[in-house]
Amino acid sequence: ELKQRVAALEKEKKTFPEVKFLTYKDRKRILITGGAGFVGSHLVDKLMLEGHEVTVVDNFFTGRKRNVEHWIGHENFELINHDIVNPLFIEVDQIYHLASPASPPNYMYNPVKTIKTNTIGTIHMLGLAKRVRGRLLLASTSEVYGDPEVHPQPEEYWGHVNPIGPRACYDEGKRVAETMCYAYAKQDHVQVRVARIFNTFGPRMHMNDGRVVSNFILQALQGEPMTVYGDGNQTRSFQYVSDLVNGLVKLMNANYSLPVNLGNPDEHTILDFANIIKNLIGGESKIVHKPIMQDDPKKRKPDITKARDYLNWKPQVPMMTGIKKTIEYFRNELQRSRHSERN
Ligand code: NAD
Ligand code: UDP
Predict the structure, then answer these.
(1) Which end of the chain has fewer CB atoms surrounding its CB within 10 Å, N or C?
(2) Which of 140, 142, 211 to mutate to test the pocket of ligand 2 (most atoms within 8 A of CB)?
(3) Whose CA is nearest to atom 27 of ligand 1?
(4) Which of 170, 229, 240, 256 is catalytic?
């Protein structure tokens, strides 16, 4: 098994060609909170390849060392096991603040901790940005729009969130995190950037995090029933992770400080999405309906005019291309877990 692991690591290393060399002047010290998670680890790859010094802070609640282990030992990389609910003192130029559980079952598992991470944790990161005179980018979410009454959602829309529902710990946590960013910007001149991220998928999503993409792909690969919640007429718009990561870096370095939607406007009903995955994978899975979760947004689609105008950004990866890559990833993960079960 060790040999296989080494071979897998070698293969992964080959997928990262040379890390660029940046002179001291251009090299930034970058902190990524939640950098061992799904999105964070792809951001680590991009910034490391660009030649920056990257520090990841993660408490490994939903993240895994495995997502970033190919960088361990690289002189530009540091991994710190730390919970951002506690203060952190380091010297950095930029902070990508991603630490927070992101999938509904994960953030509902311990709502109080979700609130603490998004409130106290965000205060700590803003305090750090203030002390080092750095710039902070908050990974906010389309969930700030709640169950929207405006479609598609532009950044000016204030949202429609149930403040005491089961999703509130996350939705309101992110809303107050945004409020804190602009309070620190106004009062203490902290430079802030706010990305409102729409549903994102790709390799390194957790196998069992309960989000629709991972659920459907795993269910179809294993010939199990595909669980559509409710009638499946609710919609989502899915973006591939590399598009998001490019958008995050563009936003961090842009001259625009108000919130920006990052998402792919390619909108599908969940039932349609289940059929797309079923047809791509083939197999025997049937689609079954389960009760819908309380406050599940009925539709969601980003208006990305601002990202286009201010960042010159738009998604590049078609959904089918992204889905095929993600299916391949989950196929390998399943093989891997079967292999470790056998041994
Ligand atoms: P993820 O669960 O894979 O990553 C979150 C990371 O934060 C994990 O590594 C976790 O261990 C870490 N973390 C959680 N609480 C922490 C704490 N108290 N201290 C330190 N580390 C902590 O989720 P993701 O999909 O990569 O999401 C990353 C960010 O993007 C989150 O802030 C999420 O709200 C936001 N976002 C993601 C999506 C999406 O579709 N993936 C959509 C909207 C917003
Ligand atoms: N969903 C589903 N079956 C599943 C998981 C999710 O039908 O096995 C639905 C869920 O009800 C929601 C949509 O898929 O309408 C997206 O859910 P997800 O948890 O991925 O993220 P959300 O956008 O709700 O935060």
Answers:
(1) C
(2) 211
(3) 102
(4) 170
Contact (CB, 8 A) for 30 and 53: yes
d(CA 234, CA 298): 5
156/162 Cα distance (integer angstroms): 19
Continuous H helices in the chain: 2-15, 38-49, 104-109, 111-132, 168-188, 212-221, 241-252, 270-281, 305-311, 319-342
Whole-prediction pTM value? 0.94
Residue nearest to atom 5 of ligand 2 (CA): 212
Measured CA to CA in angstroms, residue 77 lies from 107, 187, 194, 285 at distances of: 28, 33, 25, 43
Pairing mode of beta strands 239-240, 200-201: parallel
Does the ipTM surpass 0.85? yes
Cβ neighbours of 85 (radius 10 Å): 16
Per-residue pLDDT of 287-313, as tens digits, reads 999 999 999 999 999 999 999 999 999
Spell out the residues 6+ positions from residue 183 whose beta carbon is closer than 8 angstroms to its own.
none
Rounded to the nearest angstrom, the distance between the alpha carbon of 161 and the centre of ligand 2 is: 17
CA distance 101 to 322: 23
Cα–Cα distance, 80 to 69 (Å, whole number): 12
| Cβ pair 183, 126 in contact under 8 A | no
